[in-house]
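Hi R.,

As promised on Friday, here is the backbone we talked about, encoded as structure tokens. Could you run it through your design pipeline when you get a chance and send me back a sequence?
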């Protein structure tokens, strides 16, 4: 059962929330408020802690829209007087432009690489801006139309690979129902017109179809040709109450709506089916609990529904064939679905966390199962699902046993253990050595308990030390016989602590390697910097770091991999940097790493990739499924081999190389949820 902790974001007491936005890659949330006619923006970490030194406020002016850069900590802010601001959270600086818009900015969108910004206001002006990596604005183009401009959707050409200098074509529209197309050359033409104002615009099925929902609750569907021309294909009247608020994808071809009713209505385009999810079918909800907002987290297939009485209903999409007895039940029913049930039966109710106040909107964060809840009475809270972390190094495993506690198991044969510490390696010695190693491998592991002072969000372990962090601080503990009060069953001893805004840390011998502020730093356990590994702006920010006995490997937000030889007194560059999109050529362009591991002799790298944040536009259609492939790059052969766990219905969640055998990779996987659009293609889990 999922467990969610409620963290309240501390905003001024007499203020009211006007907008909120999660970053796509970092666990930070921007919240704007109205405090007696003055507008301001605060930035919060995933447990509601305010980020320090954020000074974003204006007298007599309110924030109407917020949008984060897809990779960098740069926040675009649209004010109701038409000013567009860019806040650089690393430099703590803000740049403004008030030359294009003269009225409230209603939408802001970044291009996939963050080099362009598209904005629209309530007087019909749409602006296109260039933005450099530091957040400096330059006007590019602008269109002046009639009516409010409220929505837009980007649609790159399917036959072209997007580059960092491109601004993809996009459709936009608003209160008059006219949909316009802005192409790559900056030409703006009328594409179509619908009855009523635009309530939502979405892309469907690999970006070859545009769906427009109007204020009259009419859904109109258009196919998109290679030259971006629209052809009308379908029109339906959506069922539901008159207060239609959210229209979102909850899976491939699955459209969900809510309209302050006691239910969520779902339309399955692939199977021509309509059904409802009702919170009142589960405790503690009743028939008078009205759904005010919905949000879908596509990586985990989780749907959240906010109600007007302060309760959140959370479901997970899990086809009946993936549940115990699901396929047999479907076959017995004779529904001809090949073992996968349809409709509401595919949704598994998980939990109903409570947040104080009447809820207006919910929004999922990009990482760690974070859900922001905007209430009318009590500001914004963050529901944070408790995730237990774990890691492994050369026979030593560290597992989080509670929010602030670790259980460490060390095999007797591991370095620092009671065995010979060779992990089965080395020649000579004869039968007695083999018997001793065999006995050590079968002996019970040593067990150590470590209580931490911070809530653990990540950890890295070595033979007798463990580093833990929470995104603001890093602590290092020693365990084992040399840990003073430690030892088997005893608590670890704290060796060092320092402030550090990092979510990627690796411990290696007497050092920590930390990704922070666009660089990787080598620090001691007290935080003193011993060496710095810098990156150019074009290379992206370092987001993953791993250390083998002799090598440091780092992956950046732009999908670049760099290596250093750290076996000598001074680190030296090892091998040429490589782009993931060059190594995995048959995959989608613009890849970013989500997991990276170097083997024990530095000759192979295992990695898992995903489309860069903002580049994976199919997520708008609910198609952002977990990556199922693990790739292994052989540095000596300059070749990549891949294994796809999707064929067995699973996806990788964690991996580690053997400490002695450089060809042995261990991968942990989880079942892959069966998408709604795949019901006719798969007969079971």
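Update: got your reply. Pasting your designed sequence below so it's all in one thread:
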């Amino acid at each position: 059962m999922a467990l969610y902790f409620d963290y309240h974001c501390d905003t001024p007491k007499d203020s009211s929330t006007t907008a909120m936005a999660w970053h796509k890659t970092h666990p930070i949330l921007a919240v704007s408020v109205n405090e007696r006619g003055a507008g301001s923006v605060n930035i919060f970490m995933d447990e509601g802690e305010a980020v320090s030194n954020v000074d974003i406020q204006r007298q007599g002016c309110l924030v109407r829209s917020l949008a984060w850069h897809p990779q960098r900590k740069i926040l675009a802010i649209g004010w109701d007087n038409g000013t567009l601001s860019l806040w650089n959270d690393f430099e703590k600086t803000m740049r403004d432009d008030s030359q294009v818009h003269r009225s409230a900015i209603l939408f802001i969108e970044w291009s996939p690489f963050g080099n362009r910004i598209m904005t629209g206001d309530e007087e019909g002006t749409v602006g296109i801006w260039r933005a450099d990596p530091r957040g400096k604005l330059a006007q590019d183009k602008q269109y002046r139309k009639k009516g409010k401009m409220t929505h837009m959707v980007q649609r790159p050409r399917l036959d072209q690979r997007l580059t960092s200098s491109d601004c993809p074509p996009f459709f936009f529209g608003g209160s008059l129902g006219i949909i316009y197309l802005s192409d790559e050359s900056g030409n703006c033409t009328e594409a179509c017109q619908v009855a009523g104002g635009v309530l939502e615009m979405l892309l469907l099925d690999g970006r070859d179809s545009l769906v427009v929902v109007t204020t009259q609750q009419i859904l109109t569907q258009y196919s998109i040709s290679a030259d971006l021309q629209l052809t009308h294909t379908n029109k339906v009247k959506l069922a539901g109450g008159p207060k239609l608020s959210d229209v979102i994808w909850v899976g491939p071809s699955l459209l969900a709506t809510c309209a302050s009713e006691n239910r969520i209505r779902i339309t399955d385009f692939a199977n021509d089916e309509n059904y409802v999810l009702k919170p009142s079918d589960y405790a503690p909800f009743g028939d008078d609990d009205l759904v005010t907002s919905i949000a879908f987290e596509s990586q985990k297939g989780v749907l959240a529904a906010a109600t007007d009485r302060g309760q959140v209903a959370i479901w997970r999409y899990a086809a009946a064939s993936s549940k115990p007895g699901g396929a047999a039940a479907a076959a017995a029913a004779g529904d001809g679905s090949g073992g996968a049930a349809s409709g509401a039966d595919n949704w598994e109710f998980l939990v109903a966390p409570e947040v104080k106040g009447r809820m207006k909107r919910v929004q999922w964060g990009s990482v760690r199962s974070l859900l922001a809840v905007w209430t009318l009475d009590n500001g914004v809270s963050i529901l944070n699902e408790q995730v237990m972390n774990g890691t492994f190094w050369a026979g030593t495993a560290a597992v989080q046993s509670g929010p602030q506690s670790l259980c460490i198991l060390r095999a007797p044969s591991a370095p620092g253990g009671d065995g010979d510490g060779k992990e089965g390696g080395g020649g000579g010695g004869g039968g007695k050595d083999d018997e001793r190693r065999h006995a050590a491998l079968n002996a019970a592991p040593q067990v150590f308990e470590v209580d931490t002072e911070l809530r653990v969000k990540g950890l890295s372990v070595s033979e007798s030390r463990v580093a833990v962090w929470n995104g603001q601080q890093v602590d290092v503990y020693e365990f084992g016989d040399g840990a003073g009060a430690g030892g088997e069953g005893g608590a670890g001893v704290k060796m060092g602590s320092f402030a550090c805004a990092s979510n990627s840390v690796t411990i290696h011998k007497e050092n920590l390697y930390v990704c922070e502020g666009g660089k990787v730093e080598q620090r001691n356990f007290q935080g003193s910097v011993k060496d710095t590994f810098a990156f150019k702006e074009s290379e992206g920010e370092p987001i993953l770091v791993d250390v083998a006995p002799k090598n440091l490997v780092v992956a950046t937000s732009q999908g670049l991999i760099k290596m250093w030889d750290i076996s000598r007194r001074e680190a030296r560059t090892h091998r040429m940097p490589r782009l993931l999109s060059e190594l995995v050529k048959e995959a989608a362009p613009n890849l970013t790493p989500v997991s990276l591991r170097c083997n024990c002799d530095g000759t192979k790298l295992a990695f898992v990739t995903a489309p860069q944040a903002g580049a994976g536009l199919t997520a708008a259609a609910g198609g952002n499924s977990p990556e199922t492939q693990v790739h292994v790059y052989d540095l000596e052969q300059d070749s990549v081999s891949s294994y796809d766990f999707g064929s067995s219905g699973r996806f990788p969640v964690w991996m580690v190389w053997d400490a002695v055998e450089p060809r042995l990779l261990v991968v942990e996987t989880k079942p892959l949820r069966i998408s709604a659009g795949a019901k006719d293609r798969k007969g079971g889990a």
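One thing I noticed while checking it: The longest helix spans residues 430-442.

Thanks again,
M.
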